[in-house]
Amino acid sequence: MQKKIPERRCVGCNESKPKKELIRVVRTPDGGIILDETGKKSGRGVYVCPNETCLTKAIKSKRMDKSLMCEIPDDVYAVLTEAVKRIKLSSEE
């Protein structure tokens, strides 16, 4: 019997994809917003595809802010944009 692959919905394109293919952003219990590389950090999380189109949609529509129930600072968006670019470069190699 095959193990079930967990899926999550991207806040940018609204498509369900395997959890490991997405980037997780977490609002920690103390109120900080961080990028979760492991996917296991404690707190409320949202997922976004590792492509610039989905990230742009999520930022413009403020879907991440709504899902995390707080305003996300611009520096978090900058870190997220860098992560998307890094993932894109590593997948092209």
Sequence stretches where pLDDT stays below 50 over 5 or more residues: none
What is the makeup of the main sheet?
Answer: 3 strands, antiparallel
Q: How would you state the average pLDDT, rounded?
A: 92
The strand order across the widest sheet is 4-3-5
User: Could you give the count of β-strands?
Assistant: 5
Distance between the termini: 34 Å
| Share of residues in helices | 25-40%
List SSEs in N-to-C order.
Answer: EEEEEHHH
Number of helices: 3
User: What percentage of the residues does DSSP assign to strands (E)?
Assistant: 15-25%
For the CA atoms, what is the radius of gyration? 13 Å
Approximate shape: globular
What structural category arises from helix and sheet content?
alpha+beta
What this model shows, in words?
The protein is α+β, with helices and mostly antiparallel strands and 93 residues long. It is built from three helices and five strands; from the N terminus they run E-E-E-E-E-H-H-H. The chain has helices at residues 52-60, 63-68, 74-92, and strands at 7-9, 16-18, 23-27, 33-36, 44-48. It has a three-stranded antiparallel β-sheet. The longest helix has 19 residues, at 74-92. The protein is globular and about 40 Å long.
